[in-house]
Amino acid sequence: GGEALPPILDARICSDGSIVAFVWNSELYVVKTDCKSAPLQLTTGSRDSAVTNGLADYVAQEEMGRYEGYWISPDSTLVAFEQVDESGVPEYRIMHQGSDKVG
């Protein structure tokens, strides 16, 4: 029983192979590939909110074909990331064609 954990998203190995970066539960993490340390959380504040860290936003994916939301420096010492806050985006309910139900 119990609830399933959120999946790990966009896991990538850096160019020199020393770390793996990934997004879990809307936060960005890195872990060394030597398996000697626990994952290090790089971002905070997005869990259970409309904020995501390290994931490409909808417009970037759909209109620009950009699916990455974080970038690791060539020397693997820095990570740049996108933070998206959708708290101001209203939710619109859409009527399904041929149905009286709103989805």
Write the layout of secondary structure elements.
Layout: E1 8-13, E2 19-24, E3 27-32, E4 40-41, E5 51-53, H1 58-64, E6 70-72, E7 79-81, E8 83-85
Antiparallel strand pairs: 1-2, 2-3, 3-4, 5-8, 6-7
Whole-Å distance between the termini? 28 Å
How would you sum up the major sheet?
4 strands, antiparallel
From the alpha carbons, calculate the radius of gyration and give it in angstroms: 17 Å
Approximately how much helix is present in the residues? under 10%
Query: What count of helical segments does DSSP give?
Result: 1
Poorly predicted spans? none
Tally of strands: 8
SS-based structural class? mainly beta
Helix and strand run: EEEEEHEEE
Shape: elongated
Please give the domain count. Answer: 1
Strand order of the largest sheet: 1-2-3-4
Q: What is the overall pLDDT average?
A: 90
Report strand %: 25-35%
Describe the overall structure:
By secondary structure, this protein is mostly beta strands. The protein has one domain (8-85). 7% of the residues lie in helices and 31% in strands. The chain has one helix and eight strands; from the N terminus they run E-E-E-E-E-H-E-E-E. A four-stranded antiparallel β-sheet has the order 1-2-3-4, with no helix packed on it.
Short description:
With 103 residues, the chain is mainly β.
Primary descriptors:
1 helix; two-stranded antiparallel sheet; mainly beta; single chain; 103 residues
